[in-house]
Amino acid sequence: MSNGTTPAPESSSASNLALLIFRVACSLPVLYHGSAILFGAFGGPGPENFAKYAHAPVIVGYLVGLAQFAGGLAILLGAMQRIGSVCVIIVMIGAIYLVHLPHGFDIGKGGMEFALTVLLVAVGLLVTGPGSYSLRGVLPGGLKKL
């Protein structure tokens, strides 16, 4: 029972709903950009053009797209969500360092504002796990903790 100053227990339905909302908020933009890179969806570059833009080998385009798409899907579903969070964290660190940092913080100027937000939400989800409203329960044994 909460007296107004004590946080709700970790297993509360409100906390689980909040985790679901955070998972959706984190996963949707990552799935969008991952689909654009990996599949060329939504008018995106596809892996070859992404790699060319990044002045990197083509395999980098496939790996970044896969990390974003699979990571976003894992976060959204809450199955192997911690692995998905690590994938998103790595991609966001790369995006911040390689693309956004030179433009400062302001997203309107190409800055890191949104990428940093997605990174921090992914870190929070890595720490907390997916919550009860997830598909983690359908996974066998040890995979439930990932």
Biggest sheet, open or closed, and with what strands and sense? none
Mean pLDDT across the residues is 93
State the order of secondary-structure elements, H for helix, E for strand.
HHHHH
Residue stretches low in confidence (pLDDT < 50, at least 5 long) are: none
**Radius of gyration of CA atoms, rounded to a whole number:** 17 Å
Structural class: mainly alpha
Kindly report how far apart the N and C termini lie: 31 Å
Fraction in beta strands = under 5%
Return the domain count. Answer: 1
Question: Helical proportion?
Answer: 55-70%
Global geometry: globular
Number of strands: 0
Number of helices: 5
Explain how this protein is built.
The chain has 146 residues and is mostly helical. It has one domain. The protein is built from five helices and no strands. Helix 1 crosses helix 5 and helix 3 packs across helix 4. It is globular and about 45 Å long. The mean pLDDT is 93.
Secondary structure layout:
Elements: H1 13-38, H2 46-53, H3 58-77, H4 81-100, H5 113-128
Helix pairs in contact: 1-2, 1-3, 1-5, 2-3, 3-4, 4-5
Keywords, please?
mainly alpha, 146 residues, 62% helix, globular
Give a brief description.
This protein has 146 residues and is mainly alpha-helical. 62% of the residues lie in helices and 0% in strands.
